[in-house]
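Support request, priority: normal
Reporter: lab tech (M.K.)
Component: structure prediction queue

Hi team, I submitted a job for non-specific serine/threonine protein kinase from Triticum aestivum yesterday, and the status page still shows it as pending. I've pasted the exact input below so you can check whether something in the sequence is tripping the parser. The sequence length should be 532 residues. Please let me know if I need to resubmit or if it's stuck on your end.
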Amino acid sequence: MRLESDGHLRLYDWANGSILYEVMQINDCDYPTVCGEYGICIESQCVCPYENSFFKPVDERQPNLGCTPLTPISCQEKQRHRLLTLSSIYYFDKNYTVVNAKSLAQCKKACLKNCSCRAVIFSYYHNDSYGECMWVTKVFSLQSMQPGDDDVYSSTAYLKVQIDKNKNNVMLGATLGGIGALLLLAIVVGFYLKRRKKYEEKDDFDFDQLPGMPTRFSFEKMIECTEGFIKKLGEGGFGMVFEGKLGEDTVAVKRLEGARQGNKEFLAEVETIGRIEHINLVRLIGFCAEKSERLLVYEYMSRGPLDRWIYYRHNNAPLDWCTRCRIILDIAKGLCYLHEECRQKLAHLDIKPQNILLDESFNAEVADFGLCKLIDRDQSKVVTMMRGTPGYLAPEWLTSRITEKVDVYSFGVVIMEIVSGRKNIDTSEPEENVQLIKLLREKATDNQMIDLVDKHSDDMVSHQDEVIKMMKLAIWCLQHDSIRRPSMSVVIKALEGAIIIETFDANSIMHVQDNPSRYSVTSQTTMLSGPR
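Reply from support: The job had stalled in the queue. We restarted it manually and it finished. Here are the results:
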């Protein structure tokens, strides 16, 4: 039995030195140095606070090594010291110095006066006018508190940083510029609201003015088409989908739930999909916009979404290996068109089995472009609100600086779901098997990936070598570093056997948990998609 430097107490087998088990089974985030100095541990993953603004990773490829301030703290320049707020943060050290300060203001003031203070943790139960001030002279790993950890107790960290001299001038200019921008914005918003009020008296939006639009239908026609919205096909992130008839053709009609909730998504779908045609992208036939009603009319896909066929919820027969491979290739071709063949790069941002639709012959088409983000060809990254579905989000969503490579990560997750015949996050499984990507990392490390193959299909087992190769492609797509992930055109070449799939250490993949609260540390806005 050995107490390791990382704080884990492990029991080893004397014969071959292998770990039998860890004696102390505690949360990974409870270890003092799990994320290094200044690192924040969020459900076993490490991030830097205020990354690129005040802190940077010691090594971007190894987040667990911790973070370092961009500007070192100097005691000779205390006038430039500031405290950064990190809400819902817990600190492991119980042998702290409790400063004689009962209010939050007193706590922060005491830390700014003393140069040896590198951070304070202020804890309170009801309000911050009376609490406990924790003095920290060396900042080890911080831990994010998750909802439900304590419904009454609150703990906030305040990290001391030093403002760069040049930043002071920039901040002053930015402040003055910001005030001017706010005044201008107030004028524009006032003018917009006045125009909108007058505009809404007639009709919410004049969609006919949009160039290259698909066919516009009246709401009366949509009621007739769906026979009063009686046959529900499914439920999307912003509304329900119904089966309908236009002449002899069957269509799928998506009815958005309220104009206020779905305007942005509606416009994105109409303007974007209306201009795009590809054999592996669901075709938008038309739309309806009358007062508060917003509807989209899509081509009908008779086999429905992919999740029906890989999770075995409808007692469907298992898909054979050839069909699964074709579906994976179809998804890749659809994404490749969006990323590389459109005038502007299009990041889908919500790739998951529910958004992959199948026709009668099990040909796959990518659907639901409501969250699409246009990326100019000369842009390497864009900053955007967090979007998508928990369980399929790439690690870079922690910074909100994303590229089309977030789709590649989600595609890797979908590959594993198709190959294994189970959900990425399945709470019906034993605790150690709930997360498919975490399980993939463990099985790949132990060279036991064959254990993940869908056991419902004998055909899958008979194609073991090809299945393992497909899982290696998934690992390539799931790389924590987005630069190391392949483009979708490279993925297609790998699927068609034109190039060899690169091999990576399974520890280089990282799974983002399905808990939106983890992102609260960076104060980002989240917009998570519901079931579709």
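The domain at 305-528 is CATH 1.10.510.10 (Transferase(Phosphotransferase); domain 1). The two ends are 49 Å apart (CA to CA). Let us know if anything else looks off. Ticket resolved.
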